[in-house]
Specification:
By secondary structure, the protein is mainly alpha-helical. It has 11 helices and 4 strands; from the N terminus they run αααααααββααααββ. β1 and β2 form a beta hairpin. α5 crosses α7 and α7 runs antiparallel to α8. The longest helix is centred in the middle third of the chain and has 25 residues.
């Protein structure tokens, strides 16, 4: 997993124009349009034409490979607006943090994993699988929680709560759903959510371990192996040949040598910004 993540980072460094800029803007806009049209559809057939169905896809309805990600998760307009706004914020923040290429790979790989499992369920086990964007959005939220665990959001616009506690609550419900499916005897269905979140494990596994590692270190301190640490630092420099990278736009001193970079004293941690974003960014808390 670690080597695969490094390969993705190297690909993104070499192909900076790869991906879809402002991907979440398009997804949110189309999802809102789908919801409005579905509310006006008296026959209730519009959404049935968009849902994932491996059988219909094999018969030529290939648009279903994509359109299932725009399906609304509820009929409640307040819940829809809240959900779309939240995932727009999460997705846009991840794109600023990772850059457009890596965020596009993250989202598209999540789609592909869901689609593959849908076909496996249908033709490998004879089970009709109705895909929803829930697991895809959940993987995106987990990535945000790992990168910004102490970011505070207002639950229902009233209750302030840190993202990491929301992530733990979602994880508990996620685990409960898997256990419940297993107890009902549908063992194979438990693989669907696990595989659907594989992109999170691949790309964010190291970040998750680095977040958990300080707690482990305090409980069982170990002697530092300086030779091993030096080799690791050298590998890191080889993987990231630049010295400075803007945490907002992703530009580095390699691709923009004329650009000035600064470090923000108000952000928690050590975060670099270009001169255009040093005074125009969301502070890391």
């Amino acid at each position: 997993m670690k080597s695969l993540n490094r390969a993705i980072d190297r690909f993104c460094q070499k192909h900076r124009r790869f991906g879809i800029p402002r991907l979440m803007v398009y997804i949110v806009f189309i999802s809102a349009a789908v919801y409005v049209i579905s509310m006006m559809d008296q026959t209730k057939t519009f959404l049935s034409l968009l849902g994932f169905d491996a059988g219909f896809i094999m018969r030529g309805q290939v648009w279903r490979l994509v359109t299932w990600i725009f399906l609304p998760s509820s009929n409640n307009i307040f819940f829809i607006l809240l959900t779309l706004y939240f995932y727009f914020f999460v997705g846009s923040t991840l794109e600023r943090e990772w850059g457009t290429p890596k965020f596009t790979i993250y989202y598209i790989s999540g789609m592909i994993l869901n689609i593959v499992m849908g076909f496996v369920m249908r033709y490998g086990f004879g089970l009709l699988t109705y895909l929803t964007p829930s697991f895809l959005n959940l993987s995106m939220f987990f990535a945000f929680a790992v990168l910004f665990p102490d970011h505070v959001v207002s639950l229902f616009f009233i209750i302030p709560i840190k993202v990491k506690w929301l992530a733990l609550a979602n994880l508990a419900y996620f685990a409960y759903s898997i256990v419940n499916v297993i107890l009902l005897g549908y063992m194979i269905l438990a693989l669907l959510p696990l595989v659907a979140l594989l992109n999170f494990i691949i790309i964010c596994g190291d970040d998750l371990l680095s977040y958990l590692r300080p707690y482990k270190a305090r409980s069982s301190p170990q002697t530092i192996n300086y030779r091993k640490a030096a080799k690791k630092a050298q590998r890191t420099r080889e993987d990231t040949p630049y010295r400075h990278k803007c945490a907002v736009c992703g530009r580095t001193d390699i691709d923009s040598p004329q650009l000035e970079f600064r470090y923000c004293s108000r952000c928690e941690g050590y975060h670099c910004f270009c001169i255009e974003h040093i005074n125009n960014h969301i502070h890391f808390q």
